[in-house]
């Protein structure tokens, strides 16, 4: 009985939390092994949302371009800390 109302609330809460910038759909889904660095093709650990689209970077290139990206990015999803967690 209560399961139906709970799932509706969860869905509504998830929808509200999603948009960060008005007019721009920013969806920070987790990075996977299928996500590749746009600079070198290594596994991506950073996703950078720009007005024109999104870019993926490995930890190396994400750090190398971090200053330029910080100036232009709407949002930066940085999962490079996951690299050290597992090692
Ligand atoms: Zn790279």
UniProtKB/TrEMBL annotation:
**Which InterPro entries does its entry note?**
DUF7455
Domain DUF7455, by residue range, is: 31-83
Superkingdom as given in the UniProt entry: Bacteria
Pfam families per the UniProt record, alphabetical: DUF7455 (PF24254)
This chain's protein is named: DUF7455 domain-containing protein
- Organism in which the protein naturally occurs: Actinomyces gaoshouyii
């Amino acid at each position: 009985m209560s399961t139906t109302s709970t799932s509706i609330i969860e869905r509504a809460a998830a929808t509200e939390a999603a948009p960060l910038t008005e007019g721009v759909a920013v969806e920070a889904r987790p990075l996977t092994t299928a996500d590749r660095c746009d600079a070198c093709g290594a596994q991506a650990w950073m996703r950078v949302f720009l007005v024109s689209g999104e870019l993926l970077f490995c930890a190396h290139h994400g750090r190398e371009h971090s200053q330029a990206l910080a100036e232009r990015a709407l949002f930066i999803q940085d999962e490079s800390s996951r690299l050290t967690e597992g090692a």
